[in-house]
Sequence to fold (674 residues):
Amino acid sequence: MHKRGKQSFILPQMPVITTWASVAGKKESEGPLAHCFDVTSQDTYFGQKTWELAEQQMQKTALETLLQKAGLRKDQLGLVFSGDLLNQCISSSFTLRNAGIPHLGLYGACSTMAESLLLGSMAVGGGFSDRVVAMTSSHFAASERQYRFPLDYGGQRPPTAQWTVTGSGAALLCSAGKGPRIEGCTIGTVTDLGIPDANNMGAAMAPAAYATIRAHFEDFSTSADAFDQIITGDLGQVGKEMLLELARRDGISLGGKLTDCGTMVFDMDTQDVHAGGSGCGCSAITLCGYFLDKLHRGKLKRILFCGTGALLSPTSTQQGLPIPGVCHAVVIRGRED
Amino acid sequence: MHKRGKQSFILPQMPVITTWASVAGKKESEGPLAHCFDVTSQDTYFGQKTWELAEQQMQKTALETLLQKAGLRKDQLGLVFSGDLLNQCISSSFTLRNAGIPHLGLYGACSTMAESLLLGSMAVGGGFSDRVVAMTSSHFAASERQYRFPLDYGGQRPPTAQWTVTGSGAALLCSAGKGPRIEGCTIGTVTDLGIPDANNMGAAMAPAAYATIRAHFEDFSTSADAFDQIITGDLGQVGKEMLLELARRDGISLGGKLTDCGTMVFDMDTQDVHAGGSGCGCSAITLCGYFLDKLHRGKLKRILFCGTGALLSPTSTQQGLPIPGVCHAVVIRGRED
Fold:
């Protein structure tokens, strides 16, 4: 039995992330991580007619880049776990249309990169599949018009609002090979402290992030000391501060190890993104563009990657419901030769 | 390694479906399976103010009924895999709000019952979790107003249209116990033959169902002879006939074993459902209301349960894209004492 504690499991045969790929949009390619991405585009439509098709094009490009880097053909992949923010996850489904690759669709909102890595680890670590891809995407303009307003409307954004990242990330998990390895995972619970403001996702997700980090520490009898960094997906500046405060109140130290992809992917001073980046693509391109490389080159030894998701829909918000959050955590170890 | 062939895996430690529960709406409780369901309601709102809240209430009731039948508390569950048709899968997320149960959200459209059983099998069979719930739901009125028109509009339905089932099903997978067991699974690929008609889902899903059944036969070197029944989720009458035709053209016999939950859940002659039932709830309540009981009582020995999903969204349809389908298959064996 590989179960640990109430919410976690270990991977005795650690799946190896042998290859990873990232695709980023214009604004992301002008930010602090510009040099990290495999593919960037100055055309936010990615050569397509609609924002939704642009997002599919990004995911296709991420998958193709991954295959190219790995030297594999599509038919050599065993399984893809993917999902996205668009209604009915069309970016993910249409990306794999007639590709002949077994596919299991996920919905974890912005936690999808972590959720897909977690399930990919189960599939590879349990011997149920080999060469599993974990993948996701988001697109600023497609998200804005679905969740809030079309861009043409020119809606004002409050200071707590975040900027959905235009990007896609993909990681290849194998049972053998060289690269960062997944050691264990903690599955999140749906946590809701009653935040109803769809322009303050960080606050809605922070309690879930805290619950999962605390559960991880308990399940593995560990602490922040065991990690070089604890990395949340897209809490942004507001959510990050709330997470620190929640931990402080319980006397749990995050030991100065906390960083958030939403505060890394854009320049918070100059890029006018208010509280920071968000969206499935936020943690995906930060992990697949920046962190996996650091782990691979030995610059980081062990991280806790915590994907955070706000489980709202425009309908639930319009019907007056609050915004539940979820957070899944994955322990990734650096390459050991 | 438990992988078999290109798309399948076996479960050397077969997860046992020890308990199952079903909740059904008014129309479903007037159909041929009326006597099979644990809970039925003559109030399509299930005591709530909106159709969306009604769907959450159904999932909550399915989970509570499952726990009651199993004699378990919420905190004794290891993990819930669930998803639904509503945008951002709010029925599933809100059902588990502050329940403290680890949750992994899925999007597989109407294939979700099979997808959640498949992933539950990996989690239990691989030793990553115990007491895993596979769960899903759909609601006719919530689906109609999201995918097509609000009911008040009185839109006409063509003969190929299907009727979304109002219902929720849940199954508990354990590493030990008595009940039907999951022997192996086949993961579907996203298959698209170019059907663009959102009122003909059966035709859109039939090619995916055929692809998965054929892959299952190939991966396990087996045939229809090995099963008492091959059960598709919600192809309806039109899709079922197309699946038979696709198999016939390739010289693959389904040996008179094919049945479809969409043609079972309603009386096709008297209930005015046109081509049959559909929705995540269709295969969920038919499996968790009817088939698992038959397997448990030894009336069926071995079935291939094939969840079918149409991966469209109103946006993809409005943008002129066709409707891809997916189908995941699970081999379930009857109880052996």
User: Anything to note?
Assistant: Residues 15-174 of chain B form a domain with the Peroxisomal Thiolase; Chain A, domain 1 fold (CATH 3.40.47.40).
